[in-house]
Design goal:
The protein has three helices and 33 strands. By secondary structure, it is mainly beta. It has a five-stranded mixed sheet with strand order 2-1-5-3-4, covered by helices on one side.
């Protein structure tokens, strides 16, 4: 028999069961058997005609499936709310949101109303740092980067983030091959997987790791290979680590052009490729490393990039949070313009950055005091927004604590849900998670008491 895994919304209809073993030669037959065993599920996944409901996805093991897809004994069938639907549109009702929060003590799966209190529906990889967790919007697969305290960094994937730990599969190939050159100061053992980023090509994904390296997957994230062109970049011997190590933490694909990519490395700057990683050039003109003596800045490679994002609707535009400085590039990352000095920010130091996917002129940052005091300025927790490409910034603070809030928000701990109005979510090392369903105009505590939060990624989900 096959095992059908139920999302939290359906479990109450199946007597609280997380999974059910059912017979059947196809997914559709298995689902009908599931309905016979638990009649309250009738009509929730398959409609009265036997067709899959519009906003539901099916997976057999890790592959997307349809009702007519075959199943064999031992197969794992996952029912997953689809990426489509659920966001508030013109005149439409808001759906729920799913937030994947990577913390120092596991992955927390949170769901609930946009902008409201979120319920914890699952905790996975308990006790282990989950550096980053995200869904691939094309396949629906969830990826979790887990740094085991004893066994090092591993990447796991599952179509359902609520699945038990032993159901998540481990990706292959995310390790440095034995034949690579041992670059002095780089090491050849992987320390951390910082980010997994869907690429512009079908089933193409990228991963950034420490020590700074880029990996590519062409099979949807199941297996990976090192991008040797960046590892063998001649200048690598001059790269040095930031406070978080020598890490590749930002990956910016170019929509529609799989071979074009920008990456951010701390502390080695911005690197650009137009041939899929075979060759690279640096894009640091205009970035000012104020922590380097002025006379040494022209020759330094110590450009400590904290975060880079590309504007989805204007791919030649990128925004960058620097180690002291907020910048914008209008030529795909070759040169940079300071948009953090004299523009309304209380500080231009920080880590997190979010762009509005529908508006290239709109960006959000969360400033911290400085590198020697990495907390929100004056105990005021405020998100800052620009709507004019960084010419001016304004604080967004309604609903956020404004007294004694000396919090730290890390580079991957700020995200959006793609909805309209835009939903924004950020988590702090304090374990507090805040949410806004109106583009930051008002905020509410979505979850509290979590372990220190390392990453936050969100998506809207339909309400059945």
């Amino acid at each position: 028999m096959a095992t059908v895994h139920l999302p939290s919304t359906l479990r109450t209809l199946a007597g609280g069961l997380h999974q059910v073993e059912v017979p059947g030669g196809t997914v559709g037959e298995a689902l009908r058997q599931l309905e016979r065993a638990h009649p309250r599920l009738a009509g929730w996944v398959l409609d009265e005609r036997g067709a899959l409901r519009r906003h539901v996805s099916l997976f057999v093991n890790e592959e997307r499936a349809a009702p007519e897809s075959p199943v064999t004994p031992g197969d794992q069938v996952h029912i997953v709310p689809a990426i489509s639907g659920g966001a508030e549109g013109a005149g439409g009702a808001a759906g729920e949101v799913e937030v994947l929060a990577g913390t120092r003590k596991g992955l927390f799966v949170l769901r609930g109303p946009r902008g409201g209190r979120l319920a914890q529906v699952a905790r996975r990889f308990a006790g282990q740092p989950v550096e980053y967790a995200v869904r691939d919007p094309r396949s629906g697969l969830c990826f979790a980067s887990v740094t085991h305290s004893h066994f090092g960094p591993k990447l796991f994937f599952s179509p359902d983030p609520e699945a038990a730990d032993d159901v998540w599969e481990q990706a292959e190939g995310l390790a440095f091959p034995p034949d690579i050159a041992d670059i002095p100061g780089s090491g050849t053992a992987m320390e951390r997987i910082w980010i997994v980023e869907p690429g512009a090509g079908d089933r193409l994904l990228w991963a950034g790791v420490a020590p700074a390296a880029l990996f590519r997957s062409v099979d949807g994230g199941r297996s990976w290979e090192l991008v040797r062109g960046l590892w063998e970049e001649p200048s690598r011997k001059q790269w040095g680590p930031g406070a978080g190590g020598l890490c590749l933490h930002s990956i910016c694909p170019w929509p529609g052009e799989p071979e074009r990519l920008a990456v951010g490395i701390s502390a080695a700057g911005v690197w650009l490729t137009e041939d899929g990683g075979a060759s690279w050039r640096r894009g640091v003109a205009g970035l000012v490393p104020r922590y380097i003596p002025e006379e040494a800045r022209a020759a330094t490679y110590a450009h400590c990039v904290h975060k880079i994002l590309r504007a989805e609707r204007e791919p030649g535009t990128l925004y960058l949070q620097f180690h002291g400085g907020v910048y914008r590039s209008d030529d795909a990352g070759l040169t940079w313009t300071d948009i953090g000095t004299g523009t309304g920010l209380p500080s231009d130091f920080g880590f997190p950055l979010v762009l509005d996917p529908g508006d290239p002129a709109r960006a959000f940052v969360i400033p911290l005091v400085a590198d020697v005091d990495r907390v929100t300025p004056e105990g005021h927790l405020r998100v800052y927004e620009t709507r004019d490409r960084g010419a001016h910034w304004r604080p967004l603070a309604t609903g956020l604590p404004q007294e004694g809030a000396y919090l730290t928000i890390l580079r991957q701990a700020f995200g959006h849900d793609g909805g309209h109005p835009l939903g924004l979510y950020f988590g702090a090392e304090s374990g507090d998670l805040y949410a806004s369903a109106d583009g930051g105009e008002t905020w509410a505590a979505a979850a509290q008491g979590l372990p220190p939060i390392l990453s936050v990624r969100a998506r809207t989900t339909p309400v059945p």
